[in-house]
Amino acid sequence: MLKRRITLAVAATGAAALFAVAGCGSNAQPIQVNLAAAEVLEQAAQKTQEVSSYTVDAVVDVNHPKEGAGKLQGRMLYQNKPELAADLTVDSATFGGQSLPGGARAILQGQTLYVKVEALTKVVGGTKPWIKVNLAEAGDQGEAQKYLDQVKQFDLANVTKMVTASENVKSVGTENVNGVDTTHYSGSFPVDAAVQQLPADQQDKARTNMADLKDIKFDIWVDAQGLPAKLTMSGAQEGATFNASLFFKGFNEPVTIEAPPADQVGELPKNTTGN
Predict the structure, then answer these.
(1) What is the pLDDT of residue 262?
(2) Is 2-270 assigned to CATH 2.50.20.20?
(3) 3-state class of 66 per DSSP?
């Protein structure tokens, strides 16, 4: 179903952040002003490879003619040094008239994933608010993997790579995004071409997540450092639609990502990590 297939990154076509990049003066002039639009996207994709930490806020709206409307809103802290770590909070999630009570939270530290979702805890028979999963042992199986996938979908570098597949991107002016001067670019990209920009081991999953879409429209606001302050995407197919917005800030600034208190953490029962 479309509402489950649309990833947060693709739903970056709509939702994911309400803040701008920190540390940029409001009077800064975009360094990419003399570059062609396509070159700016390439530059941004290269710049994001150098980013070791950031914060992103997201909002994703989906609508399906049979399954109804859905909306997800959340934020994530991310770092890849000294080890991969992320703290993802889903403040609210509704799909087809049903909501996720209490939201959800997932904390990733290296190969350890902590998940706090009331509904999931009940399903697996947990007695603590948090469930701990060793990803090296769990592999690609289990309910917890879904939350790890959501963490990966916020990956700034991969999202930015996808927009470089556009062949019609153009500059549409300069705008201030939450106190940061940016240049606004607009275009679209074919899903098949965009997926090929991703690392080989992520292409199949991305292709599945976007199976209902052919082309995606996007807008990206690039700051004076050549980094995206905001990214929106939207798509439609056979009556189903999605819109997402991502706002990025705090590039390369220190983030604090801590595991939940040990006395609040339970292990994921082994019989839930497989089929």
Answers:
(1) 93
(2) yes
(3) coil
